[in-house]
User: What shape does this take?
Amino acid sequence: MVMLSGSSRSPTSSRSFQWCRRLAEWLPRPGDRAPRTPLDFGEQAIAAARLRVEPGNVSLRFVLFALLAPAAFGATDDAKSQADTPESVRAKQDLLWTQMESSVRAIVQQTDAVVGVAVLDLTDQRAFYLNADAIYPTASTIKIAVLAELYRQHERGSGAKLGDLYTVNAKDGVGTEGILQAMSAGVSRITNRDLALLMVSLSDNSATNVLIDRVGMDNVNAWLAQLGLQRTRLRRHMLDIKAAQEGRENTSTPRELVTMLRAIHEGRVFNKATSEDFIKMLSTQKSSYIPRLLPADLVIANKPGNLDAVRNDAGIILVPGRPFAIAVMTTFAADGLEAEESIGRIAYAAWSYFDRVGKSSSLGRLVR
Assistant: This one.
């Protein structure tokens, strides 16, 4: 027992001392498994409030501190013991990730096609690859690289600029679809940004070919090589059947597509302002496969592609708190519609993991 100074106590200090003793009996001590008395914290607070500690009564104030400190520090220890640990967080996320992988494998197994998948967590770089190093025809998904080279040249201030004007030329039209070739030749003038918008939103092949000529096919491939991509190459213009028959096909792999998207997301390709503009352009609403089962308000910067027996889609899915990159490439598809549906289902399986991890606490609780 800590003794108060002095041999005698006033009635006030005597009552205070008695309340100190009662408070000492009530307050929990570190290591207590149960309350020491049936009195609750509210009653303890009342007891503390009744202490009339005089300014000069240093000993009594010391007693009060000595009584209260163990409980306070004990509460801190309890809070720490309840906090999650990195090992625990990882273990729970590992289970969810494994579930996602199993779901994707099952979808691929059910699809009558060769399917390659790459899913890359842009937060911790965890990745899932399935048939991801095989080489696939890119179809229109290669247009991501064409768009990136346009933005690179614009940012450098040399080569093509987004604001450069183009006068529609009838000779530039390819295929039977697209907006560009329906415009008035020799009269209509649009910018490179407009051409890019047509390329991304409507997959306009005539607009794409104009941009390929303006930025340079060799420049696109030089940038891809600079990123360390060996299988991703632009070898022909859109709808150049003769080139395709000669083996000059535009190609990539799921792994290399997400590698390219990661570089863009991390700001290793453009500065911040250009990166934001690029993502905004690539997020333009379009008909594609990745978003089919995802929330309508989710920002998805992607570019699909299709050819006979080929369906692809690749992009950055900006899940709040947990963005990820995904590329799904299919070839030898017996049924194009089935391949498209599989891409949507695979994207949903991946999104389900990132959505839950992104919006939950480390313990898995959804805190709104």
Remarks:
- Residues 1-8, 34-41, 45-49, 51-56 have pLDDT under 50 and may be disordered.
- The radius of gyration is 33 Å.
- Residues 58-82 form the longest helix (25 residues).
- The first strand starts at residue 114 and ends at 121.
